[in-house]
Amino acid sequence: MYKMSYAEVMASGARAARAREKEALDRAIALMTEAQEASEGETAKTAEAVAYVQQLWQFFIQNLTDPDNELTASLKQDLISIGIWTIAESDRVLSDPSKTFSALIDVNKTIRDGLA
To answer: 43's torsion region: left (phi>0), alpha (psi -120 to 50) or beta?
Structure first.
């Protein structure tokens, strides 16, 4: 019978967590892209994308503020700042029809790509 070491289990768990985070960011990017490409009157897609992005980043921020989170303090602070900006910027997209998701898409792609 094969038994994995604790380090192997932990590494596998971290990889799985990163894969889930990447999938969640992929979904956020897809929703924002769909909303941006939708016709001007389709506010439901915009609202869905904003709600998902805000919930996702609220979850990330909550995780980053957990004392058991092992990331460095400076990385946690940077990611929390990005999360706060993302939530605020998505509010601006929702309230101002002239705003687009472009900056949000770019930032979320950068974060996603950094999870690899």
So the answer is: alpha
